Q: What sequence folds into this?
């Protein structure tokens, strides 16, 4: 699974960037971009980062699940956390209420491709992104304050509210990357390369 | 009395220098006495005249920090989430640092430069941390280029300035170290294809960038227009990806992780993506070629006769090849002068001398970049992408309506869904 996802992600775009020039090849008209080093130099500036230093900052999560921490969370506990910490900005149910402008974006909506507003249900191509984003930057007034279990719970609640997973699912590092988001099939990589054509 | 009134008016409008204030106060104190007792009206008049003559009294001396003339009031236009550059107030392509547009997602962090470090890890031979002092020891490069927010498109009413329409683009002279120099220092694993860049703001902003950009022209910059980067622009360091959409130029940069696959962060999936027919296009990095006339524009006025039309043009894919201006509603197009030097991925200033006959018309500009791409009309973009265009990566031709009274108005474009 992991391998397949990686391949699917990397292949189309790696074609675009296949002609990676070597470090020392200077493109015409870009000569001013070369610095004073005439060849590859190891300058010896900087220091080796310790595993502990890396671990304290390395919070990213990839679609193949790399980076997901231990822990788990379910829809029920996620709903409680949502009500306590998220509803003040995103509304009681995370849905858009006509005529009401909330501080936070609508999170819950129809999964149909053309449905609006853009929500997790119709515009988020990867479930892992939810975990990554909530953990790093939510809640807005206290980013980074949620435990990993709380983030799993919130992710479960929001996926269930968007009718993507059932109410009894307990999310963890194994099953979160397996979830296929309704919007995944809509997303395409930009393949424009600079040409007269308007696309 | 006259002196007092004049002095008061100047205070109210705020257009007063210290020198004028001081001499004005002296005059205000002295004049009534003169008028009353000496009765020397002629001398009185002369003194009044002196208030407006800068050759008649010495000005202030040197100071530690310069400031703009009190007569000049260029300001950014802030909303809750961004502030826009007053393009109509600029006469060339460098944006003064305090007028550079802002867009941040959880406010501006306060970072102590002596404690700030950049971590590079992931698919590298040796994970490393670099202090700001370390980064400044590496060979440096200076480059002038634009940064434009990918969501830089507004329309809808005639009362819009260039700042309102596309004020989320600015240009600076950036100095820092080539990212390739740092990548050479850590050693990049052959499996790496992408890198994640992460900021140390409260959004802990992240984007995935193709590794090829690092070998091409990406930089880690610490200076903007010769001095330390402004806090709004990423102090003490930011990623600079010439030509790529603004959001990817991660500010307050603290971490880079090399990877074989993209991370699909929130900002590259549910944001900064846009409908193209029945699909959603993602990973649009380069900003497409665009131009706008900044003079004359709303709310300026012009007079019959010679009007030098001025503006900026740019492309995220290289140099501006040519800019054409139309003064007849887009029927015919004339070549504009490009101000040298024309730099790659940089705002380029253009000028075209127009002899206006006083008749109502529309003036427009369009740019062609070195890939042969010609800036499209809004209608062409809609035909290529469908009617649900959204606001990202929109670069349509901008038209200004010049009315017979010399007033200039933005033309909100209409389009039809064919």
A:
């Amino acid at each position: 699974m992991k391998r397949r996802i990686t391949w699917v992600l990397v292949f189309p775009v790696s074609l675009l960037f296949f002609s990676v020039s070597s470090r020392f090849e200077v493109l015409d008209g870009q000569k001013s971009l070369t610095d004073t080093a005439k060849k590859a130099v190891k300058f010896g500036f900087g220091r080796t980062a310790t595993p502990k230093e890396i671990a304290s900052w390395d919070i990213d999560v990839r679609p193949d699940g790399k980076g997901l921490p231990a822990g788990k969370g379910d829809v029920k506990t996620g709903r409680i956390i949502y009500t306590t910490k998220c509803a003040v900005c995103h509304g009681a149910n995370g849905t858009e209420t006509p005529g009401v402008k909330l501080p936070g974006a609508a999170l819950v909506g129809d999964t149909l491709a053309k449905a609006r507003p853009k929500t997790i249900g119709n515009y988020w191509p990867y479930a892992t992104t939810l975990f990554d984003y909530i953990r790093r930057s939510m809640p807005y007034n206290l980013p980074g304050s949620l435990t990993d279990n709380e983030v799993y719970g919130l992710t479960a609640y929001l996926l269930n509210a968007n009718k993507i997973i059932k109410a009894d699912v307990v999310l963890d590092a194994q099953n979160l990357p397996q979830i296929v988001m309704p919007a995944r099939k809509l997303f395409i990589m930009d393949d424009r390369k600079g040409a007269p054509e308007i696309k | 009395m006259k002196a007092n009134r004049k002095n008061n008016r100047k205070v109210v409008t705020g257009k007063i220098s210290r020198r004028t204030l001081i001499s004005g106060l002296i005059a205000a104190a002295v004049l009534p006495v003169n008028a009353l007792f000496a009765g020397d009206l002629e001398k009185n008049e002369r003194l009044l005249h002196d208030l407006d003559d800068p050759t008649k009294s010495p000005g202030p001396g040197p100071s530690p920090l310069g400031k703009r003339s009190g007569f000049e009031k260029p300001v950014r236009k802030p909303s809750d989430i961004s502030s826009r550059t007053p393009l109509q107030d600029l006469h060339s392509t460098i944006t003064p640092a305090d007028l550079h547009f802002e867009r941040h997602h959880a406010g501006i962090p306060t970072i102590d430069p002596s404690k700030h470090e950049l971590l590079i890890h992931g698919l590298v031979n040796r994970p490393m941390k670099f202090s700001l002092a370390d980064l400044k020891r590496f060979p440096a490069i200076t480059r002038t280029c634009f940064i434009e927010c990918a969501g830089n498109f507004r329309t809808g009413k005639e009362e819009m300035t260039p700042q309102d329409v596309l004020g989320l683009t600015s240009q600076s002279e950036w100095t820092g170290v080539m990212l390739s120099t740092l990548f050479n220092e850590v050693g990049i694993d052959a499996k790496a294809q992408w890198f994640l860049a992460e900021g140390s703001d409260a959004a802990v902003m992240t984007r995935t960038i193709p590794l090829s950009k690092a070998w091409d022209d990406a930089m880690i910059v610490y200076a903007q227009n010769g001095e330390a980067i402004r806090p709004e622009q990423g102090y003490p360091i930011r990623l600079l990806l010439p030509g790529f959409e603004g959001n990817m130029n991660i500010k307050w940069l603290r971490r880079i992780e090399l990877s074989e696959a993209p991370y699909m962060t929130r900002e590259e999936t549910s944001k900064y993506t846009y409908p193209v027919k029945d699909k959603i296009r993602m990973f649009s990095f380069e900003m497409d070629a665009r131009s706008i006339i900044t003079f004359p524009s709303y709310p300026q006025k012009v007079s019959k006769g010679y009007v030098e039309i001025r503006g900026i043009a740019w492309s995220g894919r290289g140099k501006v090849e040519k800019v054409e201006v139309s003064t007849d509603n887009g029927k015919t197009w004339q070549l504009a002068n490009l101000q040298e030097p024309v730099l790659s991925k940089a705002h380029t200033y253009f000028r075209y001398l127009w002899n206006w006959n006083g008749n109502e018309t529309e003036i427009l500009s369009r740019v062609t970049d070195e890939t042969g791409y010609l800036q499209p009309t809004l209608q062409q973009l809609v035909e290529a992408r469908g009617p649900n265009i959204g606001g990202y990566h929109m670069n349509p031709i901008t038209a200004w309506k010049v009315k017979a009274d010399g007033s200039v108005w933005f033309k909100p474009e209409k389009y039809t869904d064919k």
Notes: Chain B has three domains: 2-51, 80-263, 290-410.
